[in-house]
Amino acid sequence: MEALPRLRLALVLSAVICFSLLERSSALSSQDLQIVNAERRVSFSFLICTYIISHNVSPSQFKPGIVENIGTPPASEILLAFPPTQVDHLALVKAAVTAGKRKKKSYSPLDVKPKEVFDAPNGAKYFTISLLNPLKVGESVTLEVLYTLTHSLEPFPLEISQSESQLVYYHDSAIILSPYHIKQQITFVKTPSTKVESFTRVDPTDRAGTELKYGPYEDRPPYSFSPTIIHFENNNPFAVVEELVREVEISHWGSLQITEHYTLVHAGARHKGVFSRVEYQSRPSFSGVSSFKHLLAKLPPRVHSVYYRDEIGNISSSHLRTDSRKSELEIEPRYPLFGGWKATFVIGYGLPLPDFLFESSDGMRYLNFSFGCPLAETVVDKLTIKVVLPEGSKKPYAVVPFPVEQHLETSYSYLDVVGRTVVVLEKKNVVPEHNSPFQLKSLDTQGQIPEHVLAHVARCAPITLLLNSIEQSSFKFIASPIRHDVFITLSSANNVSPMPQTSVSFVVAP
Ligand SMILES: *[C@@H]1O[C@H](CO)[C@@H](O)[C@H](O)[C@H]1NC(C)=O
Ligand SMILES: *[C@@H]1O[C@H](CO)[C@@H](O)[C@H](O)[C@H]1NC(C)=O
C-alpha cells in the first residue's frame, strides 16, 4: 500500500472531544489530564472524504466530558496529537468549548496552534488548544475539535472502466491517538454507501448499513494506536483544482473584475478503456458513476459582467441563476470528467465595487472579498488570489482569518505609467471551510498600522502585513450595463478525451 502514489483525495476530519480533569497531587503535565469519554465520527463527503473525529459521549450515557486535573496548577492548554502521515494533509483544525446539548449547544471558539515537541512517541505531531479559562483541579471541559484532511483516500483498483464503481482505501486507527489516557472511547465511520469490501476488525467492531463502529474501548493508555484499513465504494466525484489563480481587479470604473483560471482534475481511479457516450447516456446509473458532469460555481449576487478568455476553445452549456443573495453558475462540460481527466478553463465576471467596499468605524475604507474557491465541493491544491489595485495605490495589507502567504507585486498594463500594486495571497490545501471573507485595508493617515489591526493580525496567527493603501479617490461608481454575454472556456488537457469544443454563452439579467 505504501508504494501506491499519494492520491489526490481530500479528507475532512472533525472531532469532538470531551475532557475531564481528575485531581491528583503531582505536578501538572499532559499525563495529569485524562479524557473521560471520547467519541469520534469519520465521514467522507463528495470528492472529499470527511473524517470526523468526535471525542464525545452519547446522550444517554453522557457525563460531562472531564479532563481531570490531578495537579495543582490549572491547565490552560490541551494537546492534540496527529500521526505524522496525517499532518501533511491537514487543511484545517478548529476547536471550540461546547456547553449545553443538541439545539441549545453553544460554541466558544478556541485558538489552535501547531506545537513542536521533539521527543514525541512515534513521530506524533501536536497542536495545542488554548483554553479561555484554565482548568482547575476538579473542573471539566467539553471540547469539540474539527479537522479536515485532504488527499487521504486511495482509489483501489487504480483504474476502472466506465461501467465500474470506484473503490477506495482509507487508513486510520481504531484507537484515537492522544497524549492522554482515554477512559472510554468509540469511533464511528460513515461510508458513502453500504458497499464495504473489507475492513479491519479491532474488537468490538460492528457494521450496520453505512456505519462502522469501533469500540467502545476502555482505559487506553496515552499514544495507543491500532491501524485499520477500510476498503469501500466511493463514487463521489473527486474534483480537485490543482491550481486556481483568481485575479481581482479594482477598476477605476466602480467595478471589480474577476478572472479565474482553473486547472481541474478528477483525482479518482483512472478511467480505462474507451469512453462510450452511448453507454454513458443510455445507462446513467451504471455508467461512469464516479464521473462528473456539472460543476457549480457560487458567485456573489449582482454578477454584472462575465467575459471569457479563450485559451483552447469554448465549452458546452452553462446556466446562471441569480437572486438577491447569490448567483449560481452551472457549468456543464460537453464531456463528463472521468478519473485522471483534466480540464483547464477560465471564468470571468464583474461585480459592483460598492458591494465589497466597506467603511470601518474609524472611517477607513476596505475591500471585503471572499477567500477560497467558488466551485462547490472541491479541494484546491494551490490557490493564488491577486488583487490588482488602482494605479497609484499605496500600502495595502490583507487580513485573512487563517495563515496565508502574502506579498506585493507590481503589474503594468499599457495604460499604466506608475504600475499597479498587486496584493498576492497564496494558500495550499484549500477546502470549502476556507471560503470566508478577507479584508484589504490601508494604513492610517500617519502611516502607522492601526493598533486594532495589529491585534487582529496577532490573533490570526502568522500573517505578514503588507503596507500600502487603496486610494479612495480612485473609485468612481458608474452604473453597470444591465445585460452581458458570458463566455466560459473549458479546454481539454493531457488525457482528456478529444470531444468537440463548443461555445457557450448566457445572458446575465440584472
Ligand atoms: C464581509 O462581507 C460579509 C458578507 O459577504 C459579511 O458577512 C462580513 O461581515 C463582512 N466583513 C467585514 C469586516 O466587513
Ligand atoms: C467562443 O464562443 C464565442 C461566442 O459564441 C465566439 O465568438 C468565439 O469565437 C468562440 N471561440 C472559439 C475559439 O470557438
Automatic annotation (TrEMBL):
Annotated InterPro entries: Ribophorin_I (IPR007676)
Record keywords, A-Z: Endoplasmic reticulum, Membrane, Signal, Transmembrane, Transmembrane helix
Annotated localization: Endoplasmic reticulum membrane
Annotated metabolic or biological route of this protein: Protein modification; protein glycosylation
Annotated GO CC locations: oligosaccharyltransferase complex
Residues in the signal sequence: 1-27
GO terms for biological process, alphabetical: protein N-linked glycosylation via asparagine
Keyword GTP-binding: no
One Pfam family per UniProt: Ribophorin_I
Membrane topology: Single-pass type I membrane protein
Family the UniProt entry places it in: Belongs to the OST1 family.
Subunit structure comment from the entry: Component of the oligosaccharyltransferase (OST) complex.
Job description of the protein: Subunit of the oligosaccharyl transferase (OST) complex that catalyzes the initial transfer of a defined glycan (Glc(3)Man(9)GlcNAc(2) in eukaryotes) from the lipid carrier dolichol-pyrophosphate to an asparagine residue within an Asn-X-Ser/Thr consensus motif in nascent polypeptide chains, the first step in protein N-glycosylation. N-glycosylation occurs cotranslationally and the complex associates with the Sec61 complex at the channel-forming translocon complex that mediates protein translocation across the endoplasmic reticulum (ER). All subunits are required for a maximal enzyme activity.
Protein name: Dolichyl-diphosphooligosaccharide--protein glycosyltransferase subunit 1
Origin species: Actinidia rufa
